[in-house]
Amino acid sequence: xxxxxxxxxxxxxxxxxxxxxxxxxxxxxxxxxxxxxxxxxxxxxxxxxxxxxxxxxxxxxxxxxxxxxxxxxxxxxxxxxxxxxxxxxxxxxxxxxxxxxxxxxxxxxxxxxxxxxxxxxxxxxxxxxxxxxxxxxxxxxxxxxxxxxxxxxxxxxxxxxxxxxxxxxxxxxxxxxxxxxxxxxxxxxxxxxxxxxxxxxxxx
Length: 204
Prior knowledge:
- 14% of the residues lie in helices and 36% in strands.
- By secondary structure, the chain is mostly beta strands.
- It has a nine-stranded mixed sheet with strand order 3-4-2-1-7-8-9-6-5.
- A hairpin with a 4-residue loop joins strand 8 and strand 9.
């Protein structure tokens, strides 16, 4: 277990009245959903994490030195109705999500270690006496498998960064004849021979 705990976290956990909880921070389109596996609200860096009692089930947290995709399956149970509404109606895929291991003292998070950070992928919701949400978080390594459909064009750049005119003149540059060395002769325009190596060409 110590492999997942920073030295500071280990020091805090040796103190009395300090408990360990899991915290999830999910960035939905209308606003973040933050919850933890304890009771009541917990404050951390100006953010409020709602206690949902039991944070369902957390899949294995895998780490490695190789560039490859990693996936964490997160199950949130006992969700309040407002969080259920967000899960049902919000765009979430490819938005950031993170899981933390946190030390809490008197409803205040005093230390938090990042266990996993990635982007939200597939989500399923089961309704019953309580709502249970199952969500996959993908590491950034997943992006290595995805094709890039970007182009070095003004239209593509405007879609990503409106107002940026860096690629504005790309079409004109592609058709532009560039003259280099010989007046009136474009580069790659047919050239012509004449002269031996080391001897300048003669012009009339």
